[in-house]
Specification:
protein transport; single chain; 57% helix; Gyrase A, domain 2; 4-stranded antiparallel beta sheet; alpha+beta; globular; 5 domains; translocation; Multifunctional fusion protein; Alpha-Beta Plaits
Length: 862
């Protein structure tokens, strides 16, 4: 085997092995079984059995503990060092506190028992916690500012939750003073500190310590309060008492950033960086305290300047200050574990102004109902089967190679996501769908180019090499523009926008690798070994000679008229097109005697013309009967109850209560989604202007905006559709697909301009579009097979996303031919010299003295 094959195969094997290592196990393992097998020590197995017994007893007592928490309780109470049973796990040598060692090791073992690729709320459910703002604290906030303060708290909670590795949590207001938080893949049995971390106010204060008064001998000075610092080094507990000023010298509102850092002795501390005003105040305070210390040293009076660091009313440390500290940095030291230091830094970066109390805690089922999930799986299988059958039927052995490459692509995408500890949600799956579409498209591009080279009379080996060489720039430009979109979405986006951006960014890079490395090495190996002696495919769409530019004006005008009609419909139906995710609504809580499937509930309420409904089963944590929560539009809650009782009287439904819920897609997500798309389009314009020239960039941006508006317009014009949270991902899918299609056309126009130095711009555009029409049709067919399968066989939100994407596929293919290219043509007024003057695409031949020879035959087109 030659070296050029060996390194490609070796690289592929390493990457796939790396990704599979993160994908195994595919599902969570039983914690007790996992740790027992990993340890292999009988003494530890006995501890696990004790923990299982304790967990069972706690369930019976009504205060349930998981096996994990039971084991943690046993080893910490009896001061058993768990690390001695796991020789393969290393801890810091200077960490002598047994409880601290256990609190680092046991969470690592728990995480190791879980699948690396977690499922989101919409797929597997999780926990739901409702916080209530302290009424006393809320009463002190002016009525005009309460809504703003509650919104600030929601944004802060969402940022805190995301640091736990939870992707796309649901955080929304309930009523006037409550906040509901739904978190996927987390349970409070194994993560009891997650709730306290979410609701911690993180009120940070810097207070001066009395320079001379001794709490052990002197009475409390006026204006001071006694506080104590506790230090447990693992051998003994040390308590230090101080008289600390009641009023702070500096508060945490001046902290610009906080992050954990390992200090010189191997411990962990939290570094604080102040803003400009805070840096000045901190310098003034430390200058004053430093002067006290220096005076005490000079006079031997015993006075010393100490600065107490107080967090949520608890003294963290009281370091000695010897001089003025400039630069705006401080540190909080303590006996922290890595998790504790990270949590502290996170809460300091996101301080809550309003105290929160937990009023409800539930286990929740998937927000995407089981019938939707099952139908989505069925539809996906049908779609994949249809695409596979078409690729093999049309490209024969090439189709098999393409499917192998796409399979590797999906494995690598999922593996990389798992290595990041990402959560797989519906928007993430939408990103993977687009990745598969781009991967199939890249392979079709490659195969079509090879066929062109073969038709030109080249030998098989030369045709393969020429095909890959010529398609490289097309695949590169198409994927880089999509990558720019994904970077902007990940950097600026929140919630579903961010999740989609991450998945898409990974998918873009894996698509390029699989198409240009895996597909190529498989083809070359088959040819080099003589296994494949020809490259046969069907030729259904070949040899077209359509004058596309002849239809540019009527197609352009007709299309934008449809867009205008859609915009009018959008304005007319503005108040009714937004779903619960955007507007909020009613939530009714119901008890029941017979449990019905969510699909049955949705069908009954749809028949009763209730509109959008989200049925969700929840069970009180720690025991209690399961309840049914139904979310509807405002004013539809009680009619939904009546309709359900009438449809299923034997189920024994009874309403327990009703709440008004706020939107799960808040103003920040909506604003960031719009900003992300706008900025992405700007970057695309710049990139295409750099790689091609400005006229191409204008055409691509206009075509993308056209596709977004046309898709939204058609979606709104057809009755029965509303915008929901997953629709954000569907619109972003269209942006990616539209760009990919447009770049392919533009790349071919650029190439034909080089190859045909005397042809008019109109002729060149027609030739280019006829050259890529086969690829466009094949890509549209394969993508439509998948999306139509989801639309026909899927239910609920799956159907809505597939419907939207189906429209987007059609508009994307149409716009690349009748919008993007004509706009490029109009921009240059039909004159190829205008293109050449802004971008050097004119070829030079050996017999040419200058580019003027090549451009002398050009003329302004009509």
């Amino acid at each position: 085997m030659s070296g050029k094959y060996f390194w490609k195969l070796a690289l592929t094997a390493i990457i796939v092995a790396f990704c599979l290592s993160y994908l195994v196990p595919m599902s969570d393992q039983d914690f007790a079984t996992h740790v027992t097998e990993r340890s292999g020590v009988p003494e530890f197995a006995a501890l696990v059995e004790r923990a299982k017994t304790l967990s069972k007893e706690s369930e019976e007592s009504g205060r349930p503990l998981s096996v994990y928490m039971a084991l943690k309780s046993i080893v910490n109470e009896e001061r058993i060092d768990v690390s001695k049973y796991f020789a393969d796990l290393e801890l810091e040598a200077n960490l002598r506190n047994v409880e601290k060692r256990n609190n680092i090791l046991l969470p690592e073992l728990l995480a190791d028992s879980k699948a690396n690729l977690k499922k989101g709320l919409d797929i597997q459910g999780g926990i739901s916690v409702t916080f209530e703002v302290d009424p006393v604290a809320l009463s002190e906030v002016p009525a005009s500012q309460r809504s703003e303060k509650l919104s600030d708290a929601i944004n802060i909670i969402e940022r805190r939750v995301n640091t736990f590795g939870v992707s796309e949590p649901i955080v929304r207001p309930v009523g006037e003073n409550r906040i509901e938080v739904q978190i996927a893949g987390v349970n409070t049995k194994d993560n009891p500190d997650i709730i306290s971390t979410i609701q911690a106010p993180a009120k940070l204060e810097f207070r001066e310590v009395h320079p001379s008064a001794n709490p052990y001998t002197d009475p409390t000075p006026t204006g001071y309060v006694e506080m104590q610092e506790v230090d447990d080094n693992g051998e003994q507990e040390v308590v230090r008492r101080y008289y600390v000023k009641r009023l702070p010298a500096l508060s945490g509102k001046y902290v610009a950033d906080a992050f954990p850092r390992t200090n010189q002795v191997g411990g962990l501390e939290v570094i604080l960086q102040f803003d400009d005003e805070g840096a000045k105040l901190f310098a003034d305070v430390t200058e004053r305290l430093g002067a006290i210390t220096q005076r005490g040293e000079q006079t031997r009076s015993g006075e010393v300047g100490l600065l107490a660091i107080v967090l949520d009313g608890q003294l963290q440390s009281a370091p000695r200050v010897s001089e003025r500290i400039a630069g705006g940095n401080a540190q909080i030291t303590g006996d922290y574990t890595r998790r504790e230091a990270e949590n502290l830094a996170n809460t300091l970066n996101n301080p809550l102004e309003l105290p929160l109390e937990v009023v409800e805690m539930y286990e929740v089922g998937p927000s995407m109902a089981k019938d939707s999930i099952d139908s989505g799986v069925k539809a996906s299988i049908i779609g994949v089967t249809a695409v596979s059958a078409f690729m093999i039927a049309y490209f024969m052995i090439g189709g098999v190679i393409a499917l192998v490459s796409v399979l590797f692509n999906v494995i690598i995408v999922l593996g990389v996501l798992a290595s990041f500890g990402a959560t797989l949600t519906l928007p993430g799956i939408a990103g993977i769908v687009l990745t598969v579409g781009m991967a199939v498209d890249a392979n079709i591009l490659i195969f079509e180019r090879i066929r062109e080279e073969l038709r030109a009379g080249k030998a098989l080996k030369s045709a393969v090499e020429g095909g890959f060489d010529k398609v490289f720039s097309t695949i590169f430009d198409a994927n880089v523009t999509t990558l720019l979109v994904s970077f902007v979405m990940y950097g600026l986006g929140t919630g579903p926008v961010k999740g989609f951006g991450l998945t898409l960014a990974i998918g873009v890079m894996t698509t390029m690798f699989c198409a240009l490395i895996i597909t190529r090495v498989l083809l070359e190996l088959l040819f080099a070994t003589g296994t494949l002696k020809s490259f046969k495919t069907l030729s259904v769409f070949d040899a077209s000679n359509i004058d596309f530019m002849k239809f540019r004006k009527p197609a352009f005008i007709t299309s934008w008229c449809v867009v205008a009609i859609g915009v009018v419909f959008l304005a007319m139906k503005w108040d009714s097109i937004w779903g619960i995710d955007f507007t909020g609504g009613d939530e009714v809580i119901m008890s029941f005697e017979q449990r019905l499937d969510e699909g049955q509930i949705r069908d009954a309420l749809t028949a009763a013309d209730i509109g959008e409904v989200n049925p969700l089963y929840q069970a009180q944590l720690g025991g209690g009967d399961e309840v049914l929560r139904i979310q509807t539009a405002f004013g539809k809650g009680e009619p939904a109850v009546d309709a359900l009782v009438a449809a299923y009287p034997e189920a024994g439904y009874a309403m327990l209560g009703k709440n008004e819920i706020g939107p799960s897609v808040g103003a920040e997500i909506q604003k960031n989604a719009a900003l992300s798309i706008a900025l992405a389009l700007g970057l695309i314009l710049l990139y295409i202007a750099f790689r091609f020239e400005i006229g191409y960039g204008v055409g691509a941006v206009v075509a993308t905006v056209h596709d977004i508006l046309l898709t939204i317009g058609v979606f709104v014009m057809i009755p029965g559709h509303q915008f929901t949270a997953p629709m954000v991902a569907a619109i972003l899918l269209i942006v990616g697909y539209s760009l990919n299609d447009t770049i392919v056309v533009f790349d071919r126009i650029r190439e034909e301009l080089t190859l045909r130095p005397t042809s008019k711009l109109r002729e060149v555009i027609n030739i280019a579009m006829n050259a890529v029409i086969t690829r466009s049709l094949l890509t549209s067919i394969t993508t439509l097979l998948a999306s139509v399968s989801l639309m026909v066989f899927g239910k609920g939100v799956i159907n809505d996303i597939a419907f939207t994407f189906t429209i987007g596929i059609i508009t994307g293919t149409f716009s690349s031919i009748f919008i993007a290219s004509p706009v490029f043509y109009f921009y240059h007024k039909g004159d190829r010299r205008s293109v050449e003057s802004s971008h050097d695409i004119v070829p030079e031949y050996d017999w040419q003295v200058s580019t003027k020879v090549a451009s002398s035959g050009t003329s302004k087109d009509d």
